[in-house]
Write a structure and sequence with these properties.
Radius of gyration: 18 Å
CATH topology of the largest domain: Transcription Regulator spoIIAA
Strand content: 15-25%
Distance between the termini: 43 Å
Length: 258
Amino acid sequence: MGGLASAEELVYGPVRSRRLGLSLGINILPPNGKTCNFDCPYCQYGWTRVSSGEARSWPAPESIVSALSERLREAKLSRTRVDRLTLAGRGEPTLHPQFPDIVRGLRAVRDRESPDTRLAILSNSSTAEKPAIRAALLELDERYMKLDAGDPMTLRYVNDSPISCTRIVEALRTLPDLVIQTMFVSDPEGRMDNCGDIAVGPWVRAVAKIAPRKVHLITLDQTPASSFIRPVSDVRLLEIANRVRQSGVPARAFLSNS
């Protein structure tokens, strides 16, 4: 099952992020492609061409841990302060068959080499109901979990998700201390957007039910898979963020000029 990804493919950056500070990205997915069970039109990595169930060359946990250890030692020698170690990469990181083992290994390296650095994940929330995945998520310091829709039709258009909206919301509702991240996109033809009132209403109610620590609202800043969709205006992002706050949940809109 061990993959042949290079150390540079496994751990990349550091990347400067408005949300995460200076972050080392950790890609635990197979090299040379995208591995995801969603097919979002806004994805910067393009459309999902390979099924998540197909045989893939998964990087071995020991290779991932070794690559992170090396990069953290390099950061220490160069006196580079890394704010976060972020499980992300080209797809959904929790799909790795040995995800819990990887999390335990990454925690051990972090604790040894850089104990003040936060260990985080960017996840599409699709596996959050699985007991082994939930246990591993709880071992991380920060969980940034996707929720782009609060109703089945919008979820279908914006994520092409195989998981029902109800199952995702219920899984997130019982996962403590998380941040919801939502990508809002617009479509001039109305084919695949989630920023109109019809979509925003159910989404706000779903967010209120989950009661996360915070909500991050973002929009396109890179080339998406679909040529049809467009970014949402700063004004609209602020309007949606205000609706979330009115429901009792803290929210921040990341604007194009911020």
